[in-house]
Amino acid sequence: MARTTLTSKGQITIPQTVRAALGLEQGDQLLIEATGDGFHATLVRRPRAAALQGILRSSVPYQGEEAEKVAVAEELARKHRSR
Predict the structure, then answer these.
(1) The pLDDT of residue 76 is above 80
(2) Structural domain for 64, as ranges
């Protein structure tokens, strides 16, 4: 169990140990529900990009993140040269 403080803006900081245990990242959303003597927070699970890999069919296999970065850089250079 961890303790946190409510700010004047109504915000709380979820301690790092709790964030790490739950795998929380910046931008994650929580559902907050008032209970009799407190509240209950539930993480709204969003699929991570890695979990989505492979759900769309392609005739070209994915070459990896590094190859993607190189392809983007080459396309930007090509567009810049044509101006």
Answers:
(1) yes
(2) 49-81
